[in-house]
Q: What sequence folds into this?
């Protein structure tokens, strides 16, 4: 399954405003400087899921010539790990000083996997905000939470002004912000402004120093990991349900699960559990991935026999091997109380 959120701001009410030149009608002399558009910590509480597609053909490629994008994607997707974090609330904030030129609110937070494309036709961006900045620059913020928009048209904003919260509205199947940048009518990749196609890392970053550090390119990340007392699904990880089913002494199974993003073709995944007595409990090594995976789910464990699960600390180890080297690893534990 590929997380997607194609076509950001499509509604006429927003697109008309997006074509306006800069406030003073002049062309930009200087590139815009962008701050992080979310109030969360990249790599810890939120994650970069998709970059702009830098490839103009039917294939796709991110600005570093990796596969962390999909065909035609025109923004930067910053996600939260599950709907639990979405419901707790993560602010979307202005990436630069400017003026609000369009807003939309009132679109339900429903995954496109549950609704229909027809139901969000013309509202693919969902709840959103568009800001105009000096020099003809525009930033757009999509898929925000219903009833969370906190600014109105014509309002001036500063760097970091809260605009609303990350949501699941419009054409999306996972909770995230789709952030896009335009100069005049041209869509721009904030990681690689004015890059030559296929040049793998050329072009200019529009991010300010702090954002650039936070958004350093990562080739794979673990975004969810835990133990459960029954087998779990990717949908239960997305909804947050998976973490509400911890094992106990009499649970029907004892499993460890991991969801990672940004995996590459040829990656080999290993996941194992060590029992409280230090002996192997369960292990799995998967064949090399046949192609890159926007997200990938792994689970290992056992069904219970007649005896209760022994109390104590269970340790899970997750490891991704790429070209024989470990490129991603995570250990996590669960303390099973006596039955
Ligand atoms: Zn997107």
A:
């Amino acid at each position: 399954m590929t997380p997607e959120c194609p076509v950001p701001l499509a509604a006429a009410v927003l697109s008309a405003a997006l074509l306006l030149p800069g406030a003073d009608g002049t062309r930009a002399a200087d590139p815009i400087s962008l701050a992080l558009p979310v109030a969360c910590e990249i790599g810890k509480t939120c994650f970069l899921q998709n970059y702009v597609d830098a490839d103009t053909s039917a294939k796709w490629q991110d600005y570093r010539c990796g596969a962390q994008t999909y065909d035609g994607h025109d923004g930067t997707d910053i996600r939260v790990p599950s709907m639990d974090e979405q419901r707790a609330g993560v602010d979307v904030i202005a990436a630069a000083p400017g003026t609000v030129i369009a807003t939309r609110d009132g679109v339900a937070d429903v995954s496109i996997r549950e609704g229909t494309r027809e139901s969000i036709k013309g509202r693919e961006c969902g709840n959103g905000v568009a800001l105009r900045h000096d020099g003809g620059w525009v930033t757009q913020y999509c898929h925000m939470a219903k009833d969370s928009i906190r600014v109105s048209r014509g309002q001036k904003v500063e760097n970091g002004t809260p605009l609303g919260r990350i949501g699941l509205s419009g054409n999306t199947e996972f909770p995230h912000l789709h952030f896009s940048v335009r100069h005049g009518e041209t869509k721009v990749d904030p990681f690689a402004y004015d890059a030559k196609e296929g040049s793998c890392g050329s072009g200019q970053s529009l991010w300010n120093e702090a954002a650039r550090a936070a958004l350093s390119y990562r080739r794979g990340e673990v975004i969810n990991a835990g133990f459960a007392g029954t087998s779990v699904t990717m949908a239960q990880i997305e909804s947050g349900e998976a973490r509400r089913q911890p094992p106990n002494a009499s649970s029907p199974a004892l499993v460890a699960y991991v969801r990672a993003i940004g995996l590459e073709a040829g990656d080999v995944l290993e996941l194992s559990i060590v029992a409280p007595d230090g002996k192997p409990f369960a292990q799995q090594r998967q064949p090399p991935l046949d192609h890159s995976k926007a997200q990938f789910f792994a689970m290992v464990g056992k069904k219970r026999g007649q005896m209760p699960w022994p109390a104590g600390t269970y340790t899970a180890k997750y490891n991704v091997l790429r070209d024989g080297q470990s490129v991603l690893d995570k250990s996590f534990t669960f303390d099973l109380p006596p039955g």
Summary: The first strand starts at residue 47 and ends at 50.
